From TrEMBL:
Coiled coil: none
Reactions catalysed, as given in the entry: carboxy-S-adenosyl-L-methionine + 5-hydroxyuridine(34) in tRNA = 5-carboxymethoxyuridine(34) in tRNA + S-adenosyl-L-homocysteine + H(+)
Alphabetical keyword list: Methyltransferase, Transferase, tRNA processing
Subunit structure: Homotetramer.
Originating species: Serratia symbiotica str. Tucson
Function: Catalyzes carboxymethyl transfer from carboxy-S-adenosyl-L-methionine (Cx-SAM) to 5-hydroxyuridine (ho5U) to form 5-carboxymethoxyuridine (cmo5U) at position 34 in tRNAs.
CDD domains the record matches: AdoMet_MTases (cd02440)
Protein name in UniProt: tRNA U34 carboxymethyltransferase
Amino acid sequence: MIEFGDFYQRIAKSNLSHWLDTLPAQLSAWQRGSRHGKFKQWLNSVEHLPTLTPTYVDLLHGVLAEMEPGLPPGQLAGIEKMLRTMMPWRKGPFSLYGIDIDTEWHSDWKWDRLLPHLSPLAGRTILDVGCGSGYHLWRMVGAGAQLAVGIDPMQLFLCQFEAVRKLLGGDQRAHLLPLGIEQLPELAAFDTVFSMGVLYHRRSPLDHLYQLKNQLVSEGELVLETLIVAGDDNQVLVPGDRYAQMRNVYFIPAARALKNWLEKCGFVDVRIADICVTSTEEQRRTSWMTSESLTEFLDPDDHRKTVEGYPAPLRAILVARKP
């Protein structure tokens, strides 16, 4: 069973201590709740993974752990087998004792794009909304974060995160909680809040922006990464049943329209930091994620369009401040 007592202790003497008024009951309810059919298998793999103490860890340039001398081949093979029971691995990559988890997304490329535009993360308390397997949490720790908290309700992602944590030696600077943003009270306690790849999945995008704002301290920084379309201050795409084969895509604004949304929600110093076309090198099928990926989601005759005929994925990073 995955326990959260270490996290409770971690925040008990911090400006997140008031979260303890609601969080333990929520996570107890989660523990008693329904489970994905493979959850026991995933959890069994996590529990059987060794907690290793690496001789070398690099979270600044990637998520890398090594040990000298290397692990015995039989133990390595066993670790890789357990990690593969938790496929698909979507966000990464990870390099753990010579096991290279080649994930669907090159999340390191996104990190390299956004890092130059952020306020320094050293000493900060950070929230990552919709964090997936927690890859970026480790990169935040590598950039000096005091505490990086990820929330994502997907049970697979929690198991993947806890597996990586064990292989990194049980590092307590990053934590993943199986919650959605709508379950968080107005904490107003995080120095930086990230929302990456979430906004277009929200039926009410402005409510999402207010929820993010409510988690920030005064003068805190929001980092928002999302799908956009080309266009002016008023351009918004509302896809039909699917966009790039995704069912739950509701609103895809132009970057300038999204800037207006942020300002309407009370953010200041809003800037469009980066705009980038998603390539089939950045998102692709691998041996760790064997189902369809971006190549199959694009028009085979014109990669400028999705299979539904919409503009192909274009992503932007916006940075804003809560006054």
